[in-house]
Design goal:
The complex is a heterodimer of chains A (298) and B (380).
Chain A: H1 24-27, H2 29-51, E1 52-54, E2 61-63, H3 66-71, H4 74-107, H5 111-124, H6 129-140, H7 145-150, H8 162-187, H9 190-198, H10 203-232, H11 235-241, H12 248-256, H13 265-293
Antiparallel strand pairs in A: 1-2
Helix pairs in contact in A: 2-13, 4-8, 4-10, 4-12, 5-8, 6-11, 8-10, 9-10, 10-13, 12-13
Chain B: H1 6-26, H2 44-47, H3 50-60, E1 62-66, H4 75-85, E2 89-93, H5 99-108, E3 118-121, H6 123-131, E4 135-136, E5 158-170, H7 181-184, E6 193-195, H8 203-215, H9 224-235, H10 246-251, E7 256-260, H11 261-271, E8 278-281, E9 289-297, H12 303-313, H13 316-324, E10 328-329, H14 332-338, H15 343-348, H16 361-379
Parallel strand pairs in B: 1-2, 6-7
Antiparallel strand pairs in B: 3-9, 4-9, 5-7, 5-8, 5-9, 5-10
Classes of the chains: A mainly alpha (298), B alpha+beta (380).
Chain lengths: 298, 380
């Protein structure tokens, strides 16, 4: 996931980017090799498994659309929808919350607040999996400390639900957004704001016509990053809600590595393929927009 | 990817075969006693008796096991006892793996030294693995004593130990511990009842749903009443979807947990000193027992050690070690009749009335298909 990191030292009329030289094709070769090996190969394996069937007795394989078809119906389709819903919702809330926190930190004159927030965000953004689930179970589960103290039960709180899972996800998604968006907010030059004020713009007008359009690609980039993180998360959800919130990662785990369902590996691969396609679609929305206004943050 | 061309592969294979043959030929004694090589031997007699098997296994010196959690059915002690009895080092890989992972490991590491030698599988995986020709047929000395419906006729797999679906309950937090599935629906258990996993993934949680089906006029062929039962439990707010683990049990987050009786009974021991009074009851309205199965990897890198491990597991000592972990070894009825079962361990088992019956392969497959289709919807 690429997030445009502005360099605030470079001025508008500064160094012009070097045109592509003849040697640059060679320089990019290691990257291409790396991508081919670490992304292309697994993708190929997923694709192959998703569209073929191996006969148990003869060992021969044949083409089939059955796995993909099954991955797009019944409980599997529900799980895809559930994942998109959960990731979409948490990514939107996480992006907004992260933006406001980051803006507060950036405009605050207290340097310690800034470094404390960024450090905490760095830690929290990487806090996930079963430890996170258990931390929440201990604090906000049915017999959790907070649940008992604040009597959350009577307020209708239930950690083991869609809402509960969203809250847990926001716990690591919001700090991730803060980390992502702070550099972009730093890139908004004070001069732009002064210029807007000098020409008689209100704060709202400044944000609507200058601030947000310039921030848009970074915001969207953050959203895509958050969506991806939530979409791919597995361990936390597995420990918290089991099968009661349908999620595609849980379904893949059931099919791939379980004690109950036999011979579902290829459906799991088809589900992975669906996931890659959805992630690709989300990226496809983000990339052109990013190109359009990223130049302001150079 | 680089692949050796065919002649090269053939040469390599030839070399491997040659090495094996030489190794066998170099075996000092019993080699003449009609041995067929460790990989093909189907009983201790093929080695020329137990003593020869032990020697061959100790010569290999190592055994690769997979998916054997030390706190599950006393496997920790079993492995230690095996290592203490024979000069063989046990390499225990990925203790928390599932049956599907075991099969995947067998397939992915065909011909490698790191492949698992022996497997402890859910019954469906034992059957499918045998159908895929992954296991070596091997008859332990006690093979004939295993009931016919609990073994493969060709000895590619046979049941090892099992238990009943039970209700574990933290008596410090719950005033009246529930004894049956009907009890669990009572309002006093609101937000208290958990399974130990997702039944589309965890074998014991699946057993829980199956037992609930039997408790609600379901049959082996019809698991739907069990799914409906849990949907009702969830609707009443009694069911919590969090997976019960030793941690959640100790913390009191899953004060009532439906799980195998040997795991629940094990928790009782584990938590006695920690202020948790864990009680175990096998619900009389939904009696469901399930056994796991043992199999030898056909491509086992340590074929003799693998077979010796099997002999050890089905010896009186091995069976009693499982029993000590509250699991019911497959030979328990024979051993009880013969007086070789350790009475103190038998006395500690949760009480069950009647003898268990088992679903057929077709019924099991059907139940799983229905569960995979309906569970999510019913519970969300």
């Amino acid at each position: 996931m690429s997030v445009t990191l502005p360099s605030s030292t470079r001025t508008a009329g500064g160094v012009r980017r070097r045109r592509r030289g003849p040697g640059s094709g060679l320089a990019v070769l290691p990257l291409l090799l790396f991508t081919g090996l670490c992304f292309g190969l697994p993708f190929g394996a997923v694709l192959y498994g998703a569209v073929t069937r191996t006969d148990a007795t003869t060992g021969g394989s044949s083409l089939t659309g059955e796995h993909v078809r099954r991955s797009l119906q019944g409980p599997y389709l529900d799980s895809l929808a559930g994942s998109v819903q959960l990731s979409g919702l948490t990514a939107v809330i996480g992006s907004l919350a992260g933006l406001f926190i980051a803006q507060a930190v950036v405009t605050s004159r207290r340097q310690w607040l800034r470094s404390a927030t960024l450090t905490a965000s760095g830690v929290l953004a990487n806090f996930g999996g079963v430890p996170l689930a258990f931390a929440f179970i201990a604090t906000a589960g049915i017999s959790g400390v907070l649940t008992q103290l604040a009597d959350l039960d009577s307020l209708g709180w239930n950690l083991y639900s869609f809402t509960g899972l969203s809250v847990v996800y926001l716990y690591f998604l919001t700090p991730l957004m803060v980390l992502t968006i702070v550099p972009a907010l730093d890139g908004l030059r004070p001069q732009w704001r002064e210029a807007a004020q000098n020409t008689g713009a209100s704060t709202w007008q400044y944000w609507r016509m200058v601030g947000l359009p310039v921030l848009a690609p970074s915001l969207l980039g953050g959203f895509v990053l958050l969506f991806g993180s939530a979409f791919a998360a597995h361990a936390t959800a597995a420990a918290l809600v089991g099968g009661s919130v349908p999620l595609v990662t849980l379904k893949i785990a059931d099919a791939l590595s379980g004690n109950v369902l036999v011979g579902q590996e290829n459906v799991a691969l088809a589900l992975s393929l669906d996931m890659i396609l959805i992630a690709g679609l989300v990226m496809a929305v983000y990339l052109p927009l990013q190109r359009r206004s990223a130049r302001w943050l150079r | 990817m680089f692949r050796p061309t065919r002649p090269v592969a053939a040469a390599l294979l030839g070399a491997a075969v040659l090495t094996t043959v030489t190794a066998c030929g170099a075996a000092p004694d019993n080699a003449a006693a009609g041995t067929v090589g460790a990989k093909a031997s189907a009983s201790a007699a093929d080695f020329g008796g137990m003593q020869a098997l032990v020697e061959a296994a100790e010569k290999e010196g190592e055994l690769n096991v997979i998916a054997l959690p030390p706190d599950w059915a006393n496997y920790g002690e079993i492995i230690k006892a095996f290592e203490a009895t024979y000069k063989i080092k046990v390499n225990s890989e990925n203790p928390d793996a599932a049956s599907a992972d075991e099969i995947a490991a067998v397939k992915a590491r065909k011909g490698q030294k790191r492949a698992p030698d022996v497997l402890d599988l859910g019954i469906a995986f034992a059957r499918s693995g045998a159908a895929e020709n992954l296991f070596a047929p091997y008859k332990v000395e006690a093979f004939d004593k295993i009931p016919a419906e609990q073994k493969d006729a060709q000895a590619r797999w046979y049941n090892d130990y099992g238990g009943y679906v039970s209700i574990g309950c933290d008596a410090k937090r719950i005033k009246n511990c529930p004894q049956t599935f009907a009890d669990l629906l009572k309002p006093e258990y609101k937000g208290k009842v958990a399974l130990n996993g997702n039944p589309t993934k965890s074998g014991s949680a699946f057993g829980g749903v199956y037992a609930a089906a039997l408790a609600n006029k379901g049959t082996f062929g019809d698991i739907q009443p069990g799914i409906d039962y849990f949907a009702e439990l969830k609707k009443r707010g009694n069911f919590i979807p969090v997976e019960s683990t030793p941690a959640t049990v100790e913390k009191g987050e899953t004060p009532i947990s439906i799980d195998w009786d040997y795991l629940n009974a094990g928790y009782a021991d584990q938590f006695r000193g920690k202020g948790v009074d864990w009680k175990v009851a096998v619900p009389s309205d939904g009696v469901y027992a399930q056994y796991y199965s043992q199999a030898v990897n056909k491509q086992a890198p340590h074929p003799a050690a693998a077979r010796l491990w099997m002999e050890f597991l089905y010896s009186t000592e091995g069976q009693n070690l499982w029993l000590k972990g509250y699991a019911r070894p497959v030979l328990l009825p024979v051993m009880t009749a013969g007086g070789t079962a350790d009475k103190s361990f038998v006395a500690k088992l949760p009480q069950v009335e009647g003898t268990p019956t088992f679903p057929s392969s077709a019924e099991l497959d059907k139940a799983k298909a229905v569960l995979a289709e309906k569970w999510d919807k019913a519970l969300s």
